[in-house]
Amino acid sequence: MTLELWNGEEVVRVLPTVRVYDRTCELMERYRLGRKRILDTSLAATLEAADVTRLATLNPGDFTVFPFLELVGPGVEG
Fold it and tell me: Is 66 contained in some domain?
């Protein structure tokens, strides 16, 4: 199933760039995030680098710290 989604014609793949590592570190320092937040922060930095502004998630609390993301999903007001 996952591979089918990844290979869909309508899918735009967003991959980390070289800048994402530095931005991840900047965000972790700015928001005082611990090591357990590395993957979420890296995803947020990757989306930001790709000019993605909306994120659908079942865990909005993991991303509320990032002001550049508009969150969509259960428990998200708006």
Answer: no
Task: 19-27: list long-range contacts, CB under 8 Å, 24+ apart.
Answer: 19/49, 20/45, 20/46, 20/49, 23/48, 23/49, 27/66
Dihedral angle over CA of 8, 41, 16, 69, nearest 10: 60
**pLDDT class of 78 with cuts at 50, 70, 90:** low
The residue behind tokens 């609390």 is 61
pLDDT tens digits, one per residue of 14-47: 999 999 999 999 999 999 999 999 999 999 999 9
Which structural domain range is residue 13 located in? 2-52
In a domain, 67, yes or no: no
